[in-house]
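Could you help me review a protein record that somebody else here produced? My question to you is simply how this chain folds and whether the tokens agree. Thanks in advance; the entry in question is below:
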Amino acid sequence: MEKTELYRRIADEADRGELVFPASAEVELRIKRALDDPDCSIDQAAKLIQADPLLAARVVAVANSVAYNRSGREITDVRQSVARLGFRTLRSLTMSLLVKQMSGQSGEPAHKALAQKLWEHTAHVAALSHVIARRVTHQDPETALFAGILHEVAGFYLISRAREIPELLTGDLSEWRGNGESVVGAALLKILEVPEGVATAIGAMWEGYLAIPPSSLGDTLLLAEELAPVASPLYWTPDAESAAAGKPQIEMALDEETLSSILAESAEEVQSLISALK
């Protein structure tokens, strides 16, 4: 079966609600839906998060990161962390764990290594999106963080299905970026109930057209993607590293002085978020 047909088959399954998630990811999905309830209180949210040790650890870590702890006052419990971060950031963190665990079904070492590299890339893009939104495109930073976390959701799902359909990750992956990612990704974003504005921005990032000057959420993701020091392993080609070295879209969008200033001023913040997200 041609890869394009495989991608369409997976997308059709997603459209029918037949996503195959590991049990751990299902837990995060239930927590995310609870957080979406406007009647969910801080105490209720804290209890839900405390029931998931991995998520609880991540929430406390992010609450103490430079990006969210301007006062430098460390907190050590989940409830205070929930209050500091707010529900929007909690949804992002819950989705980050869901996305990361989505690829956990495959026991193949090569698949696990691929998923780890893809998560490193995702963490960099999410953290950089948070900073770029505030300092360059003037988008909402929390929405940008959320979008950055989800921008590789289709890739993680691809890895998760490779145990069942090994040919998904064999041979040339160029069709994935050109066709598969947008087809499968759109279906996944819909079933995960991602807000339309975020889904549209991620779709724009997949298309790869950066506005000059950059101003949209899609532009934010594109800049973060180009600035990320860890490239997506699903996009690698023999010429990818040399092409990326020139950073042509960044050079058109930001002058060198502005870019250097942004990176220097935000370095600690980006690194703290990346460490917390990992």
About this structure: Confidence is low (pLDDT under 50) at residues 237-246.
